[in-house]
Specification:
The chain has about 450 residues and is α/β, with parallel strands linked by helices. Helices cover about 35% and strands about 15% of the residues. The protein contains 14 helices and 20 strands. Strands 7, 8, 9, 10, 11, 12, 13, 14 and 15 form a 9-stranded mixed beta sheet that branches. A 4-stranded antiparallel beta sheet has the order 6-18-19-20, with helices on one face. The longest helix has 19 residues.
């Protein structure tokens, strides 16, 4: 049984029964159908760059004498390499180390730098991002494509539809999650107006608040956010860009962050500037993290988790950032429209994923940027009213995904039912092949109606 495959689909164990052939010792890039992968394979030598014609290992799938299908790679290893950014580990760590002095200077000067100067410095640092071949811009679906490739094999092996537990509650086709990182005193003071804007469109969100140094954080401020049905999370410790530089210093900061998690009555966290070392997350006490981008071409730390679905990092659930940040859209790409957001959103909807935004109150004070955000809210409101997505707070996504992880499919003899916490909101779905395409269908009409939306058959 492959645990990552079963955890992704929550299908019965017998449909996740695959073997692994002997692997070469060296890791590199390869393809599995249309998924870019990183890890060890059975036959192909490692490719150290995700460029050019990568070998497609789909042709190396074998069936042993017992009839067991054997994959030409270790699916658990490859999935972890992508989600945990291990393919980029060496280069990203070197990047962090080499930029340490520059980042210290930048964050020391940052409060005194006007946005145009910061924009110029950041554009210079991010130059060449368009030429990065992997992860794929603007959204990378490598993990989803990998899982779908293995599901195709499972369907062919079974000779029938494969049942699984649908990804989202009540049969929702996808999930939308809005978040706000509060970076300055001006941004903090704008939070009330931002909540008014969101409420006018019926969209709740979470606010990530910096606990130390940036601005005062009063209990009354936090309570005003919660009282209006919004969510409060912790945003770094002091947002100085150094949280993950040194292990000993990190552990001291993590202890203080854990204290603020309790003080703020929060369950979630996001690191400043999306800096991250996933192998250190076990020091945190929060329930979920939001610090890992799907594609990090426009972030200070390159890489990306290559998935649009939540995933566990030990005991912590990762809710990846899947949409370009507002700051990057306005000040790096120079775009003041929602066209790029709409294109990304449509791509992620087509793969039933998590559509997660960061919109900073600090950057929405300016009228032109605020107008674009209002356009986005209007577009999201139409999606919500048209029953096209589950709109949820990060904490709600966390609870659902943890409950789904505890669910199981039970064969009653004539049908499949779901057992476990929150199972009344779960839907049985089936994967099958139609004209050589993998297609998902819900076993029953979705309960996702009204403001919650309606799902239809999903095809990949």
């Amino acid at each position: 049984m492959i645990p990552e495959f079963q955890a992704h689909y929550k299908c019965p164990a017998r449909f996740a029964d695959f073997g692994v052939s002997d692997l070469r010792p060296d890791a590199g890039y390869f393809m599995f159908s249309d998924a870019v992968c990183y890890g060890r394979t059975t036959r192909h030598p490692a490719q150290q760059q995700a460029r050019g014609d990568l070998p497609d290992t789909m042709v190396d799938v074998e069936r042993d004498q017992q009839g067991l299908l054997r994959l030409p790679f270790n699916l658990s290893e490859v999935t972890a390499n992508l989600r945990h950014e291990r393919y980029a580990q060496v280069s990203s760590r070197r990047q962090l180390a080499e930029s340490s002095s520059l980042r210290k200077l930048y964050y020391f000067m940052r409060p005194m730098l006007p946005v145009p100067v910061r924009r110029h410095l950041q554009k210079a640092r991010l130059s060449g991002w368009e030429d990065i071949p992997f992860p794929r811009w603007p959204v990378d679906f490598s993990v989803e494509s990998l899982m779908e490739g293995v599901m195709r094999l499972a369907v062919e092996q079974a000779g029938a539809e494969v049942p699984f537990i649908w990804f989202w509650p009540d049969g929702a086709p996808c999930c939308v999650m809005m978040t706000h990182d509060v970076e300055s005193e001006a941004g903090r003071n704008f939070c009330g107006r931002l909540m008014d804007m969101n409420d006018a469109h019926g969209i709740k969100s979470s606010f990530q608040v910096v606990p130390e140094e940036r601005y005062d954080v009063s209990g009354a401020f936090l309570e005003r956010i919660r009282a209006r049905g919004f969510e409060v999370n912790v945003h770094d410790l002091n947002h100085d860009g150094h949280l993950f530089e040194d292990r000993a210093q990190f552990l001291k900061r993590a202890q203080r962050i854990n204290q603020y998690i309790q003080l703020f009555e929060s369950r979630g966290f996001r690191a400043g500037a999306m800096y991250r070392r996933q192998e250190w997350f076990d020091a945190f006490d929060f329930s979920y993290d939001m610090s890992v981008p799907n594609v990090a071409h426009l972030e200070p730390q390159r890489g990306g988790c290559c998935t649009v679905m939540p995933f566990f990092i030990g005991k912590i659930l990762e809710l990846p950032l899947t949409m370009v940040q507002d700051y990057s859209l306005f000040h790096i790409l120079g775009e003041y429209s929602i066209d790029r957001w709409k294109a990304q959103l449509d791509l992620i909807r087509s793969r039933n994923g998590l559509i997660s935004f960061i919109a900073h109150p600090d950057y929405l004070i300016e009228s032109r940027a605020r107008g674009v955000y209002l356009d986005l809210l209007a577009h999201l409101q139409r999606l919500r009213d048209g029953a096209s997505a589950w709109f949820a707070l990060p904490g709600e996504v966390d609870r659902w995904w943890r409950n789904r992880a505890e669910m199981s499919l039970v064969d009653t003899g004539h049908t499949w039912t779901v057992e476990g916490p929150d199972s009344e909101r779960a839907h049985v779905a089936y994967a099958k092949l139609e004209r050589d395409r993998l297609v998902y269908r819900l076993a029953a009409a979705p309960r996702f109606t009204g403001v919650h939306g309606v799902s239809t058959t999903i095809a990949n």
